[in-house]
Every structure is written in structure tokens, then in C-alpha cells.
Amino acid sequence: MSTDLSEPDYSKIHRINLPRIVLVGENLLNQIRNICIEQNFGNALIVTGETTLKIAGQETLDLLVDGGLQANYTLISDATRETVDNVISKIKGFSSDVVLGIGGGRNIDVAKISAHECGRFYISVPTVASHDGIASDLASIKGSDRPYTVKAASPLAVVMDSRIIAESPYRFTASGCGDMICKAVEVRDWRLAHRENNDYYCGYAASLSLMSSQHVMERASIIRARTQDGIRTLLEALVSCGVSMSIAGSSKPTSGSSHLFSHSLDQIAEKPALHGEQCGVGSIMMAKLHGLNWEAIRDSLRTVGAPITAEELGMGREVIVKALTMAQSIRPNRYTILNKHKLDEKKAAELAEFTGVI
Ligand SMILES: [Zn+2]
Fold first, then answer.
1. CA 131 / ligand 1 centre spacing (Å)
2. What is the mean pLDDT of the chain?
3. What distance in angstroms lies between residue 241's CA and the mean position of ligand 1's atoms?
């Protein structure tokens, strides 16, 4: 027990950091300037890539400068430790108060980690809706052999311009739906881990994640039609999942056996597909293992236009079978349905065949 009475016992305190401002709507880039002015920021650094600079980065920079802020940008092309260190030295060099991640997962992850490590605020400005990292406090960084997850900060603000996202290549949006639909399975993995492995479980975080999956499944056809309503449903679901991770203090409400399958593919496939595409296909098979209505999951993925077979992922039968057999060992301390059904090659092939994946 702590003898210092002024110091709370953090082992007994569950701390939750959430995004303070979440904006969804059309033509929102000028809102970033307003947020920066509201917060008395004098200097902003934009972390973006070559394409996303044209889509939203340059316009945001001009708006910030018009608003009287000092603003700079830095272009990145990967999410390695070296890139994060470079961005940190730019943040310090420019004395930036706030770091804006503008673009897809990579730019957002690098901005998130860099800002966190030098104690600056961070604003998330996704230009695609391909996965749920846009509002979470976890980030993924490329290690020497595999990516690893690091705890970072929750964004001060998440600014999601539904017009920019509706105009992005649809494949990213469908991938985001795959990352949402699979939560129907991932939450079951977490419940199982709680029941059988005594894992910490938070029903509220689980419900948020599950609800995201239900909303996207129910509204799959309007998302496919790329209506503003449909895109907003997906964006709100992505934010809810980010919040569920912050509440749980872990990725467990959003990442179970379907994610383990996707991580395996990232390691062995010659050309991995998008994260959410792989998780979606994984969830069809993992739902079958859980005894869930796997056909409903497959049909929602099909309606939304996400891959449902190995062929649509651009992968051969052997890769799928191998990924299934190695999935459980990829993160051995994450307890999922794969701990109960040890998949050897034969069982893995049967599962993938039964569900029509191969
Ligand atoms: Zn995911």
C-alpha cells in the first residue's frame, strides 16, 4: 500500500481517456482551425502523406495560416520507429502545440504516437474510413519483423469529413465495414476469455463495440450506396469502437480471433489485403466456430461489398489454411475461440471450405 496519502493508488483506479471533440459532417476542415483557436494553439504540425496532402493536408494548412496560426507539414511514407523519431524532432524544432494526423492509418498512427511521446495534443483527421484506429488511444507501429501495438493518447478531436470519405476509393470504406462487422465475433471472444480465462471484462465497452457491428450490418446497403447517412453510420461506429477500447483500456472489445487471423495473413501472405477486409473474412469462419449465425455475417459483408472468399482477398487456399492454423499462436495471451478449437491443417481446411471461404 502507498504510504504517501497525497498519491492515489493507481492500481485501483480505472482511468479512461476519451476524445474531447468528435465532429462528423460535410466540409469540416475549417473546423480544425476553429478548434485550434479555441484551444489557444499557436503552432500546429500536420503529419500527412503525398496523396493526402492534396486531398486535405494543404487546404487545412492554408486555413490554419489564414486563422493566424503558424503551421507546418511533414510527409511520411511509413509507420516505423525511425519515422516517429523524425516527427518528434520536427514537433520540438517547430515548437508545435498540436499535431494533426491527416490521412489513413499510417499518418494517424505516427501523429498519435509522436504527439503522445512529447506530450502534445493530437487531432485525428481521417481521409478514409478503413479501420477503427481513427479515434482510439492505441496505435500500431512496424517493428523489425511484425507490427506491434503501443498505447498512445486519445485525440483531443476527431474531425471526420464525410464528403472526403465518401469520395475516397470505396475499397477503404468496405474495409472499415469489415473491421466493424467482425466485432460481432470479437466481443464473443472477449466474453469467452472472461468466462473461461478469468479476463477482465467490461459489459459497457463490449456493448459499444457490438452495437457498432449491428448498426453497420443493419445499414449495409445504404453504406454501399455511399449516401451521407450511410457514411455517417460507419464513421460513428468507428468512433464507438475507438471509445470502447479507451473505456476497456485494451483492444479486447474490438480485437479477437478474426484479428488474429488477419495478423497471420499480414505475416505470411505475399500481398496482404486491407486490415478490415481480412478481419471480415476471418469473422465468417470464427463465427462458425462460435456457433453464431455466420451466414448473416457473410451476407452483410457481401452487401457492403467487402471480400468474403480467399479469391476476393487475392489469396490462395494454402495461405488461408496456414493463417488459420497459426492464428492462435500469433498472440498467445489473447484468449479466443481458437484456444478451444485447436485447428490443425485438416480442421482449418474443413472450416474454410464449409463457410465457402475456399
Ligand atoms: Zn481492427
1. 6
2. 94
3. 9
